């Protein structure tokens, strides 16, 4: 029903414009005929075009459009028919497009509709072909680079995943863009810094928040995560080496003096924001954002090295469960290379 209404409206628009042009054409022809008969440019005493004549001129969209276009071509040979100004030429150029749109809506299986659909398909293919090429370079582990990989997976975006091991990194470090990882190449253009990359990809793929305020809130929590990272960082090396000889005492010491205060401070903020956000299952807004990914992946690292370290933060456990249950993310978690951190 709606498509028929749209077709009717477009047809009225076409008829109105063509009628205006056709009337101007007839007046021009009459003027030429009168000038030849009387030797001057004076109109004969005959009535204006009747409604019957107008209806004959507007038998169908196709006939009217063809007639007017033919007259435009003839006007190059006969100055007496040069009645169409620049504005009307522009309108005529659009008439065919209007009619194709109407025909496509009312008869999508017709030839005109098929041609319009084919055109739309070609445009869609061009957009797909124009998709940027992505190359992401980081260590073999997850760390601060994993969020970028997860954003590619969630958006079904192909990318080259370059994973460097220790010796490989040392061999190319001096030639790297800024002397550290990660970096992202987009059609050959280089973007450095993990959070800049995360924000860029999240904005490209729709995981940065639905409103400007949500995006700012996601960024704020991302910056808070960096503060937390710097505070807990001295704990990481003893954590990784806790099973090595002589490291157990250092591990326990750093856990108590460094890790627990940093954890309590940061996870109190996360819990507060999670509760304030209602029952959405996310830290910000009603949909998945890159800060959800960052927090949940880091929780997985802590769970691996320090089981029970996050017990008591039930809201964060709920967040972890919901995020990891996302179908596309769950698929990525299964197929990615297994690394503890």
Automatic annotation (TrEMBL):
<dbReference type="InterPro" id="IPR036282">
    <property type="entry name" value="Glutathione-S-Trfase_C_sf"/>
</dbReference>
<dbReference type="GO" id="GO:0004364">
    <property type="term" value="F:glutathione transferase activity"/>
</dbReference>
<dbReference type="InterPro" id="IPR040079">
    <property type="entry name" value="Glutathione_S-Trfase"/>
</dbReference>
<feature type="compositionally biased region" description="Basic residues">
    <location>
        <begin position="26"/>
        <end position="37"/>
    </location>
</feature>
<dbReference type="InterPro" id="IPR050213">
    <property type="entry name" value="GST_superfamily"/>
</dbReference>
<dbReference type="InterPro" id="IPR036249">
    <property type="entry name" value="Thioredoxin-like_sf"/>
</dbReference>
<dbReference type="InterPro" id="IPR004045">
    <property type="entry name" value="Glutathione_S-Trfase_N"/>
</dbReference>
<protein>
    <recommendedName>
        <fullName>glutathione transferase</fullName>
        <ecNumber>2.5.1.18</ecNumber>
    </recommendedName>
</protein>
<feature type="region of interest" description="Disordered">
    <location>
        <begin position="26"/>
        <end position="61"/>
    </location>
</feature>
<dbReference type="Pfam" id="PF02798">
    <property type="entry name" value="GST_N"/>
</dbReference>
<dbReference type="Pfam" id="PF14497">
    <property type="entry name" value="GST_C_3"/>
</dbReference>
<comment type="similarity">
    <text>Belongs to the GST superfamily. Sigma family.</text>
</comment>
<dbReference type="GO" id="GO:0006749">
    <property type="term" value="P:glutathione metabolic process"/>
</dbReference>
<dbReference type="InterPro" id="IPR004046">
    <property type="entry name" value="GST_C"/>
</dbReference>
<keyword id="KW-0808">Transferase</keyword>
<dbReference type="InterPro" id="IPR010987">
    <property type="entry name" value="Glutathione-S-Trfase_C-like"/>
</dbReference>
